[in-house]
Design a protein that fits this description.
With about 170 residues, the chain is mainly alpha-helical. Helices cover about 65% and strands about 5% of the residues. The chain is built from ten helices and two strands. It has a two-stranded parallel ribbon with strand order 1-2. Helix 4 runs antiparallel to helix 5.
Length: about 170
């Protein structure tokens, strides 16, 4: 229904090809991280606060207005930040079509990245596999162990699930 991606080239097109009804959303956390990558530590908190005014806006038009304010304030020092947000705007704005409870559930890919990182650690320790079956078993056992750490539910998941049931009633069977 919704796929949050981290900006890998071609990934949104691949998702839309296989799942044509899927709405692709760029990971907001990645956008913020990329934005402050070249900002000195002393100013990063202020830049992040101003970026939050963009992605925390209630509507797309309010977000666009806040992006203009951000550009007026920061473009002299960091013109690449607003330029990046503008060039990725089409992949950011699907986010604003959803209510706040869904936005909190879809704004980042961090949970997936955490799992991938844990899988990489396990696979790295075993560089050669005697068979494909051995590799599958290792990945299965690793995911089983990783999932034991998943004790915290997604923030605001129940209200989000209710909204998903309404928005995607033809595809979500709860």
């Amino acid at each position: 229904m919704i796929a949050c991606v981290d900006g890998l080239t071609g990934f949104p097109n691949a998702i839309e090809t296989v799942f044509p009804k899927t709405q692709v959303q760029l990971c907001i956390v990645h956008m913020v991280r990329n934005s402050v990558a070249f900002v000195p530590w002393q100013q990063s908190k202020q830049v992040c606060a101003d970026l939050k005014a963009i992605y925390g806006a209630a509507t797309e038009s309010e977000a666009e207005f806040n992006l203009e304010l951000f550009a007026e304030k920061w473009d002299k020092q960091y013109p690449s930040i607003s330029k990046s947000w503008r060039s990725h705007w089409a992949s950011i704005i699907p986010f604003f079509a959803f209510p706040p409870e869904i936005r909190r559930a879809i704004y980042t890919t961090n949970a997936i990245e955490s799992m991938n990182s844990s899988l990489r650690k396990v696979i790295k320790s075993q560089q050669i596999f005697p068979s494909d079956e051995a590799a599958f078993k290792l990945v299965y056992l690793a995911i089983r162990n990783i999932s034991k750490k998943w004790t915290m539910p997604i923030r605001d998941w129940k209200p989000a699930l209710n909204r998903f049931a309404i928005l995607f009633e033809d595809r979500l069977h709860v």
